[in-house]
Write a structure and sequence with these properties.
Layout: H1 2-11, H2 16-28, E1 42-46, H3 50-59, E2 64-68, H4 71-80, E3 85-88, H5 94-98, H6 109-118, E4 127-130, H7 135-146, E5 151-154, H8 160-167
Parallel strand pairs: 1-2, 1-3, 3-4, 4-5
Helix pairs in contact: 6-7
Length: about 170
């Protein structure tokens, strides 16, 4: 039946108003295909948690995903490739989870925020999301990255799935 309707519609001379009405009817009947494929994107993830690696791999299946677990690995990746989306975690070592009262910020995601801020020519077009559960540490990262005019926001990890679906819908 649907093929007959589509063949009949194709035989009618092009009339934008008529086609709009037909499309509306097909949408209401649930017969229109609304799926839109997007091209693959380049995604970068800085996170030390392998469970999160798998989580991101599922969300960005079909995309190019690079993963770094350390600040040094992150710097290397961010210098070598351009990304559409960058996800940064703050807490990269077990003692970071317990408190922000430590003096090794050079081993946290904040070090990458500072590093990118100093290199404004890198990753200019990327959307950056700080996804740590550590909100107290996330805000300074966001502020530091915004100093160089970057598109950045903090998204608590439990809300990240929804944000990804809204930004990079498949």
């Amino acid at each position: 039946m649907m093929q007959f309707v589509l063949c009949y519609i194709k035989m009618i001379p092009e009339n934008k108003e008529f086609m709009s009405i037909v499309r509306s009817i097909l949408l209401k009947l649930g017969l229109a295909d609304l799926k839109v494929d997007r091209t693959p994107i380049a995604v970068f993830l800085l996170d030390d948690d392998r469970r999160r690696h798998r989580w991101f791999e599922k969300r960005f299946e079909g995309d190019d995903l690079d993963i770094a677990e350390t600040v040094e690995e992150a710097k290397e990746c961010l210098q070598q490739a351009n990304y559409d989306a960058i996800f940064l975690d703050h807490d990269l070592l077990p003692h970071h989870y317990e408190s922000n009262d430590h003096d090794d910020f050079g081993t946290t995601g904040y070090a990458i925020a500072e590093w990118l801020n100093e290199r404004s020519e890198l990753q200019k077009a990327a959307t950056i999301i700080v996804h740590t559960r550590n909100a107290d540490a996330a805000i300074p990262m966001v502020q530091k990255l915004r100093e160089s005019g970057r598109s950045v926001e903090y998204v608590a990890f439990p809300m990240l799935d929804l944000k990804i679906k809204n930004y990079w819908k498949r």
